[in-house]
Design brief:
- The protein is of the alpha+beta class.
- The protein has one domain: Beta-Lactamase, CATH 3.30.450.30.
- The protein is 39% helix and 26% strand.
- The protein has 3 helices and 5 strands.
- A 5-stranded antiparallel β-sheet has the order 2-1-5-4-3, sandwiched between helices.
- The chain starts with a helix and ends in a 6-residue tail after the last helix.
- 23% of the residues are buried.
Length: 132
């Protein structure tokens, strides 16, 4: 399973050069696999990242409770001045977090923006065996 996750993150990272890093957590927000673009420094410390992921995982649990009425969550976007983080559910047990530079701080405007990246990742996930 871990190997599939690494391949999945590689495909996501390869899909757009504006993705800074991506990671997969379990449903509690504990990190399982991380993929990091070379030369990118994190804005948050490991502790801050961990706390942020746990909050996001908790929010997904809340959304899941509503799914019988409004359908399953497809993704959630948290946009900040420096980065945008997009969260995707991966099956019932995992979450994928994709972090990209915000348009305000980007220099590589030839790469995709938020909408294209969401489409890339949803396409990758729709073909992925770990999503069965």
């Amino acid at each position: 399973m871990g190997m599939n996750f690494e391949n999945l993150l590689k495909r996501i990272m390869d899909s757009d050069s504006n993705i800074r890093h991506s990671l997969i957590t379990d449903i509690e927000g504990d990190i399982l696999v991380v993929s990091h673009r070379d030369g990118v420094t994190n804005y948050l410390s490991p502790e801050e990242t961990e706390a942020s992921l746990k909050r996001a995982a908790s929010a997904w649990k809340g959304r899941k409770a509503l799914s019988p009425k409004i359908g399953n969550g497809l993704y959630a976007v948290a946009a900040f001045e420096k980065i945008t983080r997009i969260t995707f559910p991966l099956g019932d047990e995992n979450l994928i977090f994709v972090s990209l530079g915000s348009d305000a701080v980007r220099t590589d405007l030839d790469a995709g923006g938020q909408k294209q990246i969401i489409e890339h990742v949803l396409n990758i996930l729709s073909r992925d065996p770990t999503k069965a």
